[in-house]
Design brief:
Order of helices and strands of chain A: HHEHEHEEEEHEEEEEH
Distance between the termini of chain B: 120 Å
CATH architecture of one domain in chain A: 3-Layer(aba) Sandwich
Radius of gyration of chain A: 30 Å
Mean pLDDT of chain B: 75
Low-confidence stretches of chain A: 12-19, 35-43
Number of strands of chain A: 11
Keywords (chain A): Nucleus, Ribosome biogenesis
Low-confidence stretches of chain B: 1-32
Main location (chain A): nucleus
Subcellular location (chain A): Nucleus, Nucleolus
Strand content of chain B: under 5%
CATH superfamily of one domain in chain A: Brix domain
Structural class of chain A: alpha+beta
Largest sheet of chain A: 11 strands, mixed
GO molecular function (chain A): rRNA binding
Number of helices of chain A: 6
Number of helices of chain B: 9
Radius of gyration of chain B: 48 Å
Oligomer: heterodimer
Helix content of chain A: 25-40%
Strand content of chain A: 25-35%
GO biological process, one term (chain A): ribosomal large subunit assembly
Helix content of chain B: 40-55%
Chain lengths: 312, 280
Amino acid sequence: MAKKRKHEEASAEAKKKDDSALERPKRTILGWKNGQNEGQRPASGFMNKEKVLITCSRRIIYSRYRHLMLNVISLLPHCKKESKLESKEIKGATINELVELRNCTYCLFFECRKQKDLYLWMARSPNGPSVKFLVNAVYTMEELKLTGNHLKGSRPILTFSSNFDKEPRWMLIKEMITQIFGTPKNHRKAKPFLDHIFAFSIVDDHIWFRNFQVSIPHNETDKVDRGGLDKMTLIEVGPRFCLNPIKIFGGSFGGPTLYANPLYISPNLIRAMEKRKKGGRYVQKVKAKTRRKMHELENPLEPDEFAPLWKE
Amino acid sequence: MNYEEESEEIPHGFDNISDEEMNSESESEELSLSEPSKNAVNNKEGLLEKLEDIAWPNNLEWIQKLTVVYDQAEEIDVNDDLSRELAFYNQALNGARQASEKLQFMGTPFLRPPDFYAEMVKSDTHMLKIKSRLLSEKKKIDEAEERKKARESKKLAKQVQSQKLKERAKHKKEEIESVKKWRKQRQQSGFVKGKDEEIDFGHGGNSFQRSKKKRPGVSPSDRGGGFKGKDLSKKRAFRESKFGHGGHKGLKKLNTAETTNDLRDFNKGGARQDRKKRKR
């Protein structure tokens, strides 16, 4: 890397020197380099250099959440994978340190609890913000009913539903998602073509994620097809998941709470409620029985007049 | 660290459920789900500030971001899987169209040429699995359809068969009737030989002729009915006529008048053999 960077700088200097002279295209291994590619940086000097660290907590093994994480890793060529962390560790600055150590700007942390519940942290390091989601409705790419396929490492198109722009929290989340899920242009691991699309949409205050392969019928010779837009079809590739935002923090993995979802109920509580309901059924039954008994004792049956009539 | 444990929080209005409220518990649960808890935070200024902090510059080229916004017209019913997925599909399709239009306008190549081979997200073995699953599903459907068709055709065949039987019965009846008629006519005319005799039996009398059965001059043990020898060699034909070809062997083993009278095979050894037997 270092070598490459030096080389680039040198070339830039050289460019400045012979500005007046007609620039000769640079020679590469495969042919002549176009002038276009050189001018890829916009005037502002901005370049997308986001890198995402993806890790998970221990004990994610027994669920298919690990597969979800692996799928996400395969979708993001600009990510770095890190080995599992003890989930207690994240309460400290360990994970922040780790992100810094790996030269990343974002972190996706898959936290699995009780082998049932998956929480996803999206955090920008070093100084925030971070969002904690509960992940629902998980389907991995391995599922056989999803028939699509696309290049590994091609840049995705991101589509957002319009209700992402309605509230500050959604706007913030949208920005984070674009920076995390969008592959930087000219990333060294990225492939040059665009053949899939990520759909993010908010339904019922949850963010739903879908990944589709874009298939456009096109001629072999023509790289950019003219009439095929109407015939465009999408085939789902997977994975699918649904994110329920729980909290947004000011810092990375901590800091002041900027938003807390009022409608969120933890899955633990839901399970507890269900259990309580089941327990309640028995109590109710017992109660009904005693009530009936009391009622019978209070209102005894009148002796039947005609009972002795049939005895003879 | 200001990290907070959310899972231990209990939303407002849940812990006051007592035994008396057991019947209305499901209601109260719904209530707690729909009613916002009081410790909710929504610091809009802080959120916007953070957004400004992390946001990319505004004048960024679209090709850097590749984002498309889709305006959802109607509300989506979350619990209706089909409509929900359709909405997502439409959103993605719309996004893909917009994006590819923009890319075309910019003139950047974005379609994968068919001869560009590279590593895919799903491996070939996985795709093979998917394919085999699709095939097996298709096969299942086809088989079910075939079975259905066979059932229907069976039904139809039954009907046709019954129709045929009816027709045959009718035909037979008609023929018998015609014969009776003819007899009557003959009786009335006092058995006069004349042109009445050559009565038409409807089918030129052919219906009474036995077709292939027992042609004259063929032995009763001839299984082929004398028909066999035409295409066969002489030897084969003889054997065929003698031993038969398939069918019952019973007739062949029966005695006929000739065989009973033929005593050639009896008492071959004569008296000598008898004596041997006695010696033993």
